[in-house]
Amino acid sequence: MSASPDASASHTTPQDAAPATSVGLDTVDAWWRAANYLTVGQIYLLDNPLLARPLAADQIKPRLLGHWGTSPALSLIYAHLNKVIVERGTPTLYVCGPGHGGPAMVANTWLEGTYSELFPDITRDGAGMQRLFRQFSFPGGIPSHAAPETPGSINEGGELGYSLMHAFGAAFDNPHLVVACVIGDGEAETGPLAASWRGHAFLDPATDGAVLPILNLNGYKIAGPTLLARIPEEELVQFFRGQGYEPLLVTGGFDGEDPMRVHERMAAAVGEAYDRIAEIQRAARASDLPTDAAAPQTPDVTAGGAGSDPSADADPTWPLIVLRTPKGWTGPRFVDGVPVEGTFRAHQVPLAEVRDNPEHLALLDTWLRSYHAEELFDDEGRPVESLAALQPPARTRMSASTHANDGVRSALVLPPIEDQAVDVPDSRWVEGESTRVFGRWLRDVMIANPDDFRLFGPDEVASNRLDAVFEVTPRVWAESLVDGDVHLGRNGRVVEALSEHLMQGMLEGYLLTGRHGLITSYEAFVHIVDSMFNQFAKWIESASHVPWRGPISSLTYLLSSHVWRQDHNGFSHQDPGFLNIVVNKKAAVVRVYLPPDANTLLVTMEHCFQTVDHVNVVVAGKQPQPQWLSIEEARRHGEAGLGIWEWAGSEDDPGLDPDVVIAAAGDVPTLEAMAAAQLLRERIPGLRIRFVNVVDLMRLQDAKEHPHGLTSDAFDAVFTTDRPVVFAFHGYPALIHQLTYRRTNHGNIHVRGFKEMGTTTTPFDMVHLNDLDRYRLALDVLHRVPGLASAEGMPELAEEWRRAREDAREHAYRYGEDPDWITDWEFHG
């Protein structure tokens, strides 16, 4: 496929060019009928695709799957968008929100020719049409929704609510692209979609593309009416005006109305929408002062500064189309005497008993023949020549868009992390804030990549200590500015809104169209997007089996304000369980990193930003913490994924197995485990301690289960085959057991982690509540090394450590802070 136009070449728009040709509405109607025929065929037919023989029961699929109700509107929109593409040459991406409208999307991509180009066995003739029909929702075939296998798709029609946020993400930094986003009226009831309407508040018409929302208001979801379909039209118009749109209403197809009348209205609405988009962009780009696109943005925009005039800077009023047509339009109007077209009964398969009920078979025959396939396909099953007028050139076909299919991704320019690394002295005792250190490097990344990297998060950039980015870019903000606003600007590279759904969805759309980014979140609240993560991870896994899908930059989460440091928030903010959700996905897709300090975080993020087709989850604290590794050591540690820190243990003779392995994964667990190891070294000098730190959690899995996993021999070389292992873990202890249950020494692995004990309290009391503190870990070693607990002096030592735990709690509860012997602790190697 041809490359897309250079999006950075200028601020002109393709709409400025004179139309190259004009497409008649009779051709649009023929395309629409052809797409509807192909859609019905996919749902029902195994054989006889052109109805060259009388329709018989054995030509019908034994299991009827698919969704007819939304499909006619999807194809109507597709045909009219093709008309405007052919006439204007405007690059357009089609985002299909209605869940399982897959057969309509596949039908249109086959008509365009792209499907046969990408799947050569599905030829653009009668034989290919039969294979097209057979594969749909059939074992070994394709899904019923717009999936990675659907050319031009970036939005999987499974869980609803993400289409509009994907569309905005795709439009960012794509100045020539119009993203037409079809939103089902059932989807419009979801919370994520409701948060998306004002996505244009983050859209800069001078440098971004445009999003054209098209609400497919067919009135019903699976079994009942939809909310927006039942409110008065005037109220609906007011709703969308309040959301920043001027709605264009297209209503028709009811009571047997001639479809040509609907085509006339739809063509006018689509034309007006594209005119309005061109007008908004021309105005914004004409007033945009010529600047160096690579220059850092103004870090602090306040009222009275650049763009503070609301009349000049306020978000423009964008077009939106409301298409109100019957659900299942052109399908059976009545089945068994019950209304179907225009009701919820058209949602899936209107005729469910075709193989066994002759009346249903006859209705299906009548339905299929109503499209007059003989006018649409020649004797060989090829689309008739007249339909070619609505077939855009290959470079502008929505199904062949490089933004969606083979990608426009280029590698990030990554400045050296050494420039921001923490200088760790030989004493290995220096404090630093890991995310603040990373934030300074992230600032440098944004300077080096001014047009294809964005930071997304729910109003937590400053809270998570990443505010160094505001030295070079504001938050993007297309609404008006007022006195006192800071770090806001129309062309910012930071996107913040209090919706994790919205932020992840915009990032997904940005990544799926070839760019790069990062999402940050408080660890406890990333659960809001659990199912969204699931769907995206499945998209990546499925797309990996589609050879024409280009790689996309990995979706990387940075989770901070984590479970162990919620000093002023408390129990509601304490939950590390997202890691459990992540590790259950396909091993080819997911990665989990727990860097123990700032330099390891730099190494980890440098690695994540270079990966493709993964979901990376990185957990790092923002509070002052000990910094353990030099940048050179952090590089080696990051590459290994886990390793023995000889300087932290006490293995005098490397040829001997240790008496105990103390392991840690996570910054706070590492601190407590290091303190425990020091206690043991000081009080039990002869004890051979091996200290292991894990940064790449997936290294714990077997190499047969995960590409980052260790072989059995490599794992045993670190954790031994028979010695006790006391493991301090950031998350729920069961996760470590889940990852290591096949290991030789699993029976000796004892894990401490979060066990749902939390409150608003001091840092040490938090680990004390969950038995992750240094004294508890040291006591575990006493009780698990054979014979140690009963050795001379050990019962007294155990009582001393138990008393220290209680004394620390009493001090915290009396004075509101941890005692000096905790806060002033220093590592001594």
Automatic annotation (TrEMBL):
Residues 24-408 form the Xylulose 5-phosphate/Fructose 6-phosphate phosphoketolase N-terminal domain. GO terms for biological process: carbohydrate metabolic process. Its cofactor is thiamine diphosphate. This is Phosphoketolase family protein. Residues 1-15 have a biased composition (Polar residues). The lineage of its organism: Bacteria, Bacillati, Actinomycetota, Actinomycetes, Micrococcales. The keyword Lyase applies. InterPro entries: THDP-binding, Transketo_C/PFOR_II, Xul5P/Fru6P_PKetolase, Xul5P/Fru6P_PKetolase_C, Xul5P/Fru6P_PKetolase_CS, Xul5P/Fru6P_PKetolase_N, Xul5P/Fru6P_PKetolase_ThDP_BS. Residues 622-826 form the Xylulose 5-phosphate/Fructose 6-phosphate phosphoketolase C-terminal domain. Residues 1-20, 285-317 are annotated as: Disordered. It comes from the Bacteria. Transmembrane segments: none annotated. GO terms for molecular function: aldehyde-lyase activity; magnesium ion binding.
